[in-house]
Each structure stands twice: as C-alpha cells, then as structure tokens.
Amino acid sequence: MSQRVGAYAVCVDDGRVLLARYVSPYGDGSWWTLPGGGVEQNEDPFDAVTREVAEETGYESVVEELLGVDSRVVPAAIRRRRGRGDHQNLGIFYAVRVIGGTTRPEPNGETAESAWTPIADVPGLHRAALVDVGIALWESRPRTGRVAPIAVGGLVEH
User: Fold this and answer.
1) Other residues' Cβ atoms within 10 Å of the Cβ of residue 152
2) Can you give the pLDDT at residue 157?
3) Domains in the chain, start-ordered, CATH in brackets?
4) DSSP for 98-119?
5) Within 10 A of 75 (CB to CB), how many other CB atoms are there?
6) How many other C-beta atoms lie within 10 A of the C-beta of residue 157?
7) Per-residue model confidence (pLDDT) at position 109
8) Backbone φ and ψ of 17, nearest 5°
9) Fewest CB atoms within 10 A around its CB: which of 14, 58, 113, 148?
C-alpha cells in the first residue's frame, strides 16, 4: 500500500472558503480542492501548508490553528491510476489566514485558479472529499480532531 501525507489550508473569510481548481496532469479531469498538498521529506506539515498556499494561490498566509487529521484508504479498484494497489491519504488540516499577496494560477503547476467560494455553494461543486473534511473540521472544531468519514461519489472525488 502506498501512502501520502498532505497538509491542507482551510481559509475561511466572511462565509467564503478559499478553493483551488486542480487540473490533473493525467488528463482525467479537474476539480476543486483546498490549497495544500504533499509534505516533502524532512518538512514540517506546519511549514508545508503555508508553502503550498503560496505556491498554489499566490497568497501569503499564517497558520492559526490545527483543526485535525483525516485518514482514508482509496481501494486499488477505484484509484484513478489503477494497478498500483490500495493507497492511504493522511491529511493534516489547519485553519489558515491570508495576510497578503494576490491570487494567481500556480506557475508550472497543477492549480489553474483559486477562488473565494461561499461555503453554501460548495455542495454544488465537483470537488475533492478533503474540501468537505476541511469545512467540517472548521465548522465543528472537534476536540478529537476528527470528523465522520465523507462519502465519495457524485460530485465528490477521493
């Protein structure tokens, strides 16, 4: 089983959440996600999340709070890149505040745009499940740092 650790920013301001539109390099689609991504070797997730926000959106940001951790296994049978076995995603979610910069696409990257989106509009978007996880963590601030699993299907992707 492969595994990936990611750090994700939940930036909420005035009822809107900052989302990034991911475009798959494999030509299999585009969907909305939270700014964030893989933690590099020897990198602290706390540092990774602000690096990822800057890379993907153009914004400078600061971490305000650790919201929680999400762990999900994507079975080999439904992975986008089949034949590679099951895959575990470990997501570390932070409440992050934008402190400067200007939104822009990711240079030479997979993020085509970022947008402040009303939270009420999120259910109608084609999106990664981690968007729902991040919003649920932000809204409920569970003491355990964990929310109920998010079902995938329809507009929600792994």
Assistant:
1) 15
2) 85
3) 2-157 (3.90.79.10)
4) EEEE---PPTTSSEEEEEEEEG
5) 10
6) 19
7) 87
8) -115, 140
9) 14
